[in-house]
Amino acid sequence: MGIKSFQGARKQQSTTEVAALKVSDYMTRELITFRPDQMVEEVIQALIKYKISGGPVVNENNELIGVISEGDCLKDLSESRYYNMPMEQHKVENRMVKNVETIDGDMNVFDAAKVFLDSKIRRFPIVENGKLIGQISQKDILKASLDLKGHNWRKD
């Protein structure tokens, strides 16, 4: 004897409803960015002031060239204290991560959630035509899930 569903027959979902939940709809567009020639100490001050854990590094053309995080700043701080060297000369370009993974703004937010889970990265920059246009975080994906109605992952 099979298991009977108390909810009744399931409706067939169309993929167009789910596809409407794009990364670009939930990404942050106004970002705190850093320049490669900035001092790490300035980055630390900005991270504390804006209560963020990192940010993209862009050149004068707003092209993404790296990402710097709290962890990168902590490494710099730790090494300067270990070797008893002042931090005044430490630039972002020497501490930032240069090989940055990005996500396409047209990607479905649930596909993006899978990328987050597989990579263990907390935020991804969004680049369009070589320019930084935004950033999506795990928190943004959670916000997208709150916009959904019911348990069928449809946006109503």
Give start-end ranges of low-pLDDT stretches. Answer: 15-19
What is the CATH superfamily? Answer: CBS-domain
Radius of gyration, rounded? Answer: 20 Å
Which structural class best describes the helix and strand composition?
alpha+beta
Main sheet characteristics? 2 strands, antiparallel
CATH fold description: CBS-domain
Instruction: Give the beta-strand count.
Output: 4
Number of domains: 1
Our measurement of the CA-to-CA distance between the termini, rounded to an integer number of angstroms, reads 36 Å
| N-to-C series of helices and strands | HHHEEHHEEH
CATH class (first level) name: Alpha Beta
Order the strands across the largest sheet as they lie in space: 1-2
Proportion of residues in extended strands? 15-25%
Helical percentage? 25-40%
From the spread of the alpha carbons, the general shape counts as elongated
CATH architecture: Roll
The number of helical segments is 6
Task: Determine the mean pLDDT.
Answer: 85
Protein name: CBS domain-containing protein
Pfam families: CBS
Keywords: CBS domain
Domain CBS: 27-87, 96-156
Can you characterise this structure?
This protein is α+β, with helices and mostly antiparallel strands. The chain has a single domain (20-146), classed as CBS-domain. The chain contains 6 helices and 4 strands; from the N terminus they run αααββααββα. The protein has helices spanning 15-19, 23-26, 40-50, 70-82, 109-119, 138-146; strands at 54-58, 64-69, 123-128, 131-137. Strands 1-2 form a two-stranded antiparallel ribbon. Strands 3-4 form a two-stranded antiparallel sheet. The protein is elongated and about 70 Å long.
